[in-house]
Amino acid sequence: MSPMPTTTTRALTALLAGLVFGLGLIAAGMTQPLKVQAFLDLGSTWDPSLALVMGAAVAVGLVAFAWARQRGKTWDGAPIDWPSATQIDGPLVLGGLLFGIGWGIAGFCPGPAIVALGSGWDDAAIFVAAMLVGMAAHDRLKR
Predict the structure, then answer these.
(1) In this predicted model, what pLDDT tens digit does every residue of 9-57 receive, in sequence order?
(2) Is 4 left (phi over 0), alpha (psi -120 to 50) or beta?
(3) With CB atoms 3.0 to 4.6 Å apart as the test, which of 13, 25, 87, 133 could cross-link to 30 if both were Cys?
(4) Distance CA 18, CA 13 (A)
């Protein structure tokens, strides 16, 4: 049995993963709301390029998750705590609908919005602030 990873190891792993993720979002154009909205607009100016980005992400994810399941631990040696929920229920559907509406209106989803915020985009700051308010409201209503 391998020892538990140190806080420093976990922080460096998170930093590396975040940098790769952020650079990938920027390179793919997912931090550009107009590009995202053009992908979501099937009626006129449809831009299919983000479908390729999503397809590539899913392909990489399938391989990575299969490998992680087989391995049973993270790169830094921590055990993997797999989610147990598998049911599609009302809250999941409602959350997906709200997510999609917000994504379509703003052209941001949470990850790219945070990357854009780090790049100094004013619109991203407004989106992230509204997202945090929505998360806090959800938590308050859930209690």
Answers:
(1) 888 888 998 999 889 989 988 888 888 888 888 888 888 888 898 899 9
(2) beta
(3) 25
(4) 9
**CA–CA separation, 69 and 50 (whole Å):** 28
Any alpha helices (H) in the chain, and if so which ranges? Answer: 7-28, 33-40, 49-71, 90-106, 110-118, 122-142
Secondary structure (3-state) at 79 = strand
The pLDDT tens digits of the residues spanning 104-142 come to 888 888 888 998 898 888 889 999 999 999 999 989 988
CB 34 within 8 A of CB 106: no
pLDDT in tens, 74-109: 877 788 889 888 899 999 999 999 988 988 888 888
Q: Which residue carries 């917000």 as its tokens?
A: 102
**Separation between Cα atoms, residue 63 and residue 71, nearest integer Å:** 12
For residues 64 and 70, give the distance between their C-alpha atoms in angstroms, rounded to a whole number: 10
